[in-house]
Amino acid sequence: MPQRVYADWNATAPLRAEALDAMRPFLYGEAAASFGNAASVHRFGQAARAALERARRDCADVLGCAPGEIVFTSGGTESDNLALRGLAWAARYAWDERRLPGVPRLAGARFEHSAVRETLAALQRQGFEVEGDGHGSVGAQADGRVDARALLAACDERTAAVTLMLANNETGVVQPVAELARLLDERFGPRPGRAWPRFHVDAVQAVGKCSLKVDELGCDTLALSAHKFEGPKGAGLLYVRRGVTLEPLHAGGGHEDGRRGGTPNVAAAVGLATALKLAEAERPAHVARLSALRARFEAAVLAQVPGAVVHGASAERVANTSFVSFPGLDGPMLVLALDAEGLACSTGAACSEGVGRPSHVLDAMGLPPDLGRSAVRFSTGRLTREADVLAAAEIVARVVGRLRAK
Ligand code: PLP
Fold first, then answer.
1. pLDDT digits over 48-65, tens only?
2. Which of 59, 155, 219, 351 is an active site residue?
3. Mean pLDDT, the chain, whole residue set
């Protein structure tokens, strides 16, 4: 069988060698003796603590924030949960203390990742008001971008938090995060004086592709996940702006400045920081290279597959993502057929893979169910070569042609 092509980098990426090398001393009980518990006072603990704080400083440099504003977590899902549940419950306690009427509200768009959508739905079940159907009601425009003013209109004086992802995981479309931050400042007063609404940004798919400077983005909290940028799986961070109070998800020994109980995973934090620093340093060259590869891939697919539709192509997209519908075909079946021919891709978010529902992202863009059901996502990364994307386009054309002929 010819070499397989991996075109599912938005689902996950391999661990890069530099990250693994940096992690090694914190996993083994070797000479460096750095495997200690970062909370221990002895030398073993001190070495671990020093590495953890170095990793925190490195991440803070990339985000343009203070090290104390970084909380290490187990990944993007935990970071989104910590932000939204943490902000919601902190607001609820403050509401009760001040005897404010009603319950805090939450707002978000319909095309968010399930880590955000399901957290909003869970908060609604816990008695918070979530605008829309509990998963956010504001859709996207036909190009995949949300209208920042529509999201602003979903917020009022009772809104504890509003959430907007930086890059969509299915279409790759970059959302108007800085614009929404500015509109929130105009309407509700500037931070830091303003208590609510807080603004959460899921930037999980944006690393190495967009600037992550939190002051430019204007967010209060921001979620990252290491395995999307060649760091270890099960590692993430949440940026929490100074002065923003979060109710922790799990109580414990006061770790992470009381914001996340539990012995920190030092090796994971070191691997995350190493991969993040490299992704940011390589960003300009990476974006230029992947944009060119995507242009070749999409041109080849559109030339060879009649009726194929590339979503979000008229908006700014992260450089590595193509979300393409093949009308008349079933997305999950197509993904299996492509895999059988050596091309790994997906219908969208890996966690909802196989569910067989039309893409909620395309639905939020107002597209018909046939386009949503027949959509397949191709996403590239640092190790993708030109030969891979040309082979991918050739496999797509061949398999789609065969399935359509049936
Ligand atoms: N947010 C977005 C936009 C994602 O794409 C993902 C993963 O697919 C997550 C959150 C969840 O991240 P993790 O896999 O680290 O839990």
1. 999 999 999 999 999 999
2. 351
3. 93
The CATH architecture assigned to 5-14+283-405 reads: Alpha-Beta Complex (3.90)
Convert the pLDDT of each residue in 147-183 to its tens digit. 999 999 999 999 999 999 999 999 999 999 999 999 9
Give the atom of ligand 1 at the shortest distance from the alpha carbon of 80. 10
For the domain spanning 22-280, the CATH number is: 3.40.640.10
345 is an active site residue: no
231 CB less than 6 Å from ligand 1? Answer: no
On whether the CB atoms of residues 171 and 309 are closer than 8 A, the answer is no
pTM > 0.85:
yes
136 lines ligand 1 (CB under 6 A): no
Supply the angle between the helices 266-281 and 43-63 in degrees, to the nearest 10. 30
Q: How far apart are CA 191 and CA 204, in angstroms?
A: 24
Q: Where are the beta strands (DSSP E) in 2-109?
A: 5-6, 70-73, 105-108
Tell whether ligand 1 has an atom less than 6 A from the beta carbon of residue 205.
yes
Domain ranges across the chain: 5-14+283-405, 22-280
Q: State if residue 69 touches ligand 1 by the CB under 6 angstroms criterion.
A: no
pLDDT tens for each residue of 364-400: 998 999 899 999 999 999 999 999 999 999 999 999 9
CA distance 348 to 53: 35
What is the DSSP track for 321-375?
Answer: EEEEE-TTS-HHHHHHHHHHTTEE-BSS-GGGTTS-PPPHHHHHTT--HHHHHTE
Interval between CA 111 and ligand 1 midpoint (Å): 13
